[in-house]
Amino acid sequence: MNSKIKNVFQNVSYSVLANGINTLVSMVLVFIVPKALGVREYSYWQLYTFYVTYTGFFHFGWADGIYLKFGGKKYEELDKTYFNRQFWLLTFFEILIALVIGAVAYFGVDDSQKQIVLILTGTCCILQLPRTLLQYILQITDRIKDYAKNYMLEKIVYAVCVLSMLALGQKNFVILISADLFARLVTLVLLCIQCKDMVFRKLSCVGIGVRESGENIAIGSKLMFANIAGLLINGIVRFAIENHWNVETFGKVSLTMTMSNMLMVFISAVSVVIYPMLKQTPEERLAQMYKTIRMMLMIPVLGMLLVYYPAKVLLSGWLPQYAESLKYMALLFPMCVYESKVSLLINTYLKALRKEKMMMYINWGIVVISCIITGVVVYVLDNLTLSIASLTVILALRCNIAEIYLIRTLKISSGKTLLFENGLALIFIVSSWMIQSWFCMLIYGAAYLAYLFYNKENLRPLIEQMRDGVFRKIRRK
């Protein structure tokens, strides 16, 4: 294997390892925390994690602009004084944002528990968003190993703190949130040390830095608004569930979504590596790479749906108080298919092609549709099942529209494959919802084998390439 391919495999390995640890931590927490806390305390913890997903909005595209502007550069080529200004200005800005969030929570929210959740969310902004900037710098300059180590450490510190607190009998959601903030603080400090030539130098030319920040926000705002819209697509439904029913219902639905989203972890690991690789790839090769990456993605992701029924049976036995809500996994599991494709493939390609404006248009269009559907199924029909099913429908719509736009841009054809994959997702939902037994997995398994047979001509060269690569590596050793 040439050095470039070897580097890609190494980076993917580091990212997969980091996200594998994240998956392990998530599985441990999913099994232990809901059982230890009780429904109400767990629901407030889930509310915090839900709010934290939107903290990215509060850099207003600042970090995204840097991500787009400097993607594909080497770390040694970066102007360290420039990034020193950006880091500290962003940090000061997030302190102001946290103060505003705290004031709104204190004066505008009656529920004392929600006040605490919001104030701690503001604190998270101070720790998370400057850290995001440094993580982006490691990603775009191909320092994936350093990024992966930092990411792993955060999850390990978090898990150790949470399990220690639970073992000591501390069963309060505030303690668990504090563990999350502590893990973010530790990894922020270590990132500052890793990028010490940027962070620890005298801050100079603040006026110039403010102007540079404005330029980065102008570049990154479209991507940021696209990302925020992507979060709102399912966030609107989740917010409506919490608003229309109660925080306990929200917590139960969130547990089901957490299980469904676990399959996303390894996909996000690979997407970190793909972006800088695409930025360095000649444009005429992007279409062929798209076909290859797409096939390598969809085969395992569609296969992962087979773990649904064993996971449901296991969780229902372990968490009987959530057994009723776990039936919704049948509706939510296919989310990972569409979210994986969008995260790894579609969004990464659109960013590499600098089509973030189209990302924004598509996502905000789907947000409008999400608002309409949510208004009908939640507030008019008062139907929780339809509300949850709408999450997968909305994400499928976003994925298909975005992929059709991308394949037209790349001038390739994937129409039949697209129909087959949507059909597989539909077969999974119908069989899993209607047949509450192992037989549903036999039905989906047969459909999945038909999908593999349909794609056998595309699979053969991929298998040969992987086999040849492995044999070459063995011969070298």
Give a concise summary.
It is a multi-pass membrane protein. 84% of the residues lie in helices and 0% in strands.
Oligomer: single chain
Return the string of H and E elements.
Answer: HHHHHHHHHHHHHHHHHHHHH
Instruction: Compute the number of helices.
Output: 21
DSSP E strands, number: 0
Characterize the structure shown.
The protein has 477 residues and is mostly helical. The protein has 2 domains: 1-204, no CATH class; 222-477, no CATH class. It is 84% helix and 0% strand. Helix 9 packs across helix 10 and helix 9 packs across helix 18. The longest helix is centred in the middle third of the chain and has 39 residues, at 206-244. The chain is globular and about 65 Å long. One of its GO terms (cellular component) is plasma membrane. It is found in: Cell membrane. This is Flippase.
Question: What's the layout of helices and strands?
Answer:
Elements: H1 3-37, H2 39-52, H3 62-70, H4 80-108, H5 112-140, H6 144-167, H7 173-194, H8 196-199, H9 206-244, H10 247-261, H11 265-279, H12 286-304, H13 308-318, H14 323-326, H15 329-332, H16 335-352, H17 356-380, H18 384-410, H19 415-434, H20 439-454, H21 456-476
Helix pairs in contact: 1-2, 1-6, 1-11, 2-5, 2-7, 2-10, 3-5, 3-9, 4-5, 4-9, 5-7, 6-7, 9-10, 9-17, 9-18, 11-16, 12-16, 16-18, 17-18, 19-20
